[in-house]
Amino acid sequence: MSYTPYARTIKSLQYFTIAITNGNGSNTATITSVDTTKTVIHLLGHSTADNNATYPGTRMGYLTLTNATTVTATRGTTVDGLTISGVAVEHY
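Below the sequence we write its predicted structure tokens.
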């Protein structure tokens, strides 16, 4: 039996930021091609221009690995802007 240290299980890390502008419900980021069966997307954080939280949906969004080179950020409203940061983690 061979031993492979945990650190060797990560093939690539790709950080990205997606800005969703006022009037839009989603936007995308392009990443270097990954194997979609071995890649997970992690949301790292978000910020919004809606400082008063008038529309709670402006502060909530999620990320989807749409295909091998595209990550999509989606939110529940089109009011104000939202910026979402994340990382694509590809494993061997």
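The mean pLDDT is 87.
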